[in-house]
Design a protein that fits this description.
The complex is a heterodimer. Chain A is mainly alpha-helical. Chain A has helices at 4-23, 27-52, 56-86. Chain B has ten helices and two strands; from the N terminus they run H-H-H-H-H-H-H-H-E-E-H-H. Classes of the chains: A mainly alpha, B mainly alpha.
Chain lengths: 99, 279
């Protein structure tokens, strides 16, 4: 099984995440799509590590996971804060800067 | 490539997990409700963990299960419970045609990516991780050697980032109380003055046949009292439709019972179906 297949699968998952970010309106679903894109990048890192024969790709994937966890914590806190003030989790609602 | 045994097994693992992962991803963007999306993403994360294991990365596979399916997705579900299960997508398009253009652009991007990777990586031999894993006695030891050696500074910075993120979440989720907490008396006075429903809300579904919470109570004139059903069920549209035939049948039974007398009420053999009904 060549690692190329894993990278192609990562590309497909990344594309699905892109569609989710572009199309969905619920902030939480958009956030989960971003998580999917980060995971696709991780899969590519792991496949590349195997292709190159050293462990640095896995270490980078580990760092991506840590940063993603931090990002999820802050992002979800922002979503909850916006929901408290505006009673909505739609990403089209907070348009106060528009006018 | 030369030995067929492990390679064929890995191919089977790859195809099963790849199909599951893509199914989860499609479920994420196609589900109407955010809770279903979260469960589909959890499926994708578990499939990816198995793929990491197949890629000679047992440490990352376990971290993926613990961090993503264990912590991150559960955090998502907690927030979904806070924000409300009724937070489904609005169908109003702020930008006209954005959905179509977004799908087209993403499809073009995906085709480009897959073709570029396919042409760039076809026939590239995989070095394999066996030597790198065996160098310090195992995958975990090898990663630890890199993490606490070459990448020590990045590791410390990431630790700082995690603490900052936790503090930031605390600050963002904290709500300062600007005025003293209102007493029960003030709340009840305000409620009476507002002129809305003052008494307790009617209990759901206390006519015969159903007493589940998704069954709305009927008003004396036969209309449905929607406020008798809990708010989340109402928001999700999970009201059980009133069975008109059953209502008529119940009325017939009740009138028959009135003729027979209240002592042998035909519905009364199951007291659970009509709690609180005056005899």
């Amino acid at each position: 099984m060549s690692p190329e297949n894993y990278v192609v699968l990562a590309a497909v998952l990344f594309t699905i995440g892109t569609v989710g970010v572009l199309v969905r309106r619920n902030a939480i679903v958009v956030f989960m799509s971003i998580e999917l894109m980060l995971n696709a990048a991780n899969l590519a890192f792991v496949a590349f590590a195997r292709m190159q024969g050293n462990l640095e790709g896995q270490v980078i994937a580990f760092f991506v996971m840590v940063v993603a966890a931090a990002e999820v914590v802050v992002g979800l806190a922002i979503i909850v804060a916006i929901y408290r003030s505006r009673r909505s989790a739609s990403i089209d609602e907070p348009n106060l800067l528009k006018y | 490539m030369t030995d067929t045994g492990p390679s064929a097994a890995e191919a089977a693992v790859f195809w099963v997990c790849a199909i599951l992962a893509v199914t989860g991803g499609l479920g994420l963007i196609l589900s109407r409700r955010a809770v279903h999306s979260a469960l589909w993403v959890a499926l994708t994360m578990i499939s990816l963990a198995v793929l990491y294991l197949a890629n000679a990365a047992p440490f990352l596979g376990m971290v993926q299960i613990i961090v993503y399916t264990g912590a991150v997705m559960m955090l998502f579900l907690f927030v979904l419970m806070v924000v409300g299960v009724d937070s489904s997508d609005s169908l109003v398009e702020t930008l006209r045609g954005q959905r179509i253009v977004g799908i087209l652009l993403a499809a073009g991007f995906g085709i480009l990516l897959v073709l570029a990777i396919g042409s760039a990586l076809t026939g590239v031999p995989a070095a394999g991780l066996d030597a790198a894993n065996a160098e310090y006695g195992g995958n975990v030891e090898g990663i630890a050697r890199l993490l606490f050696g070459e990448y020590l500074l990045a590791f410390e910075v990431v630790a700082g980032l995690l603490i900052t993120a936790a503090l930031g979440a605390l600050v963002l989720a904290h709500r300062e109380r600007w005025q003293p907490r209102r007493t029960q008396r003030e709340l009840s006075e305000e409620r009476v003055r507002s002129g809305e429903h003052v008494g307790p809300l009617p209990a759901p579904g206390v006519y015969a046949r159903h007493n589940a919470v998704d069954t709305p109570a009927l008003l004396p004139d036969g209309t449905v009292a929607e406020i008798s059903v809990p708010g989340p069920l109402r928001a999700r549209g999970d009201l059980r439709p009133v069975d008109v035939a059953a209502v008529a049948e119940t009325e017939a039974l009740a009138s028959g019972a009135a003729a027979l007398g209240p002592a042998d009420h035909p519905v009364a053999d199951d007291p659970g179906t009509s709690p609180g009904e005056p005899s």
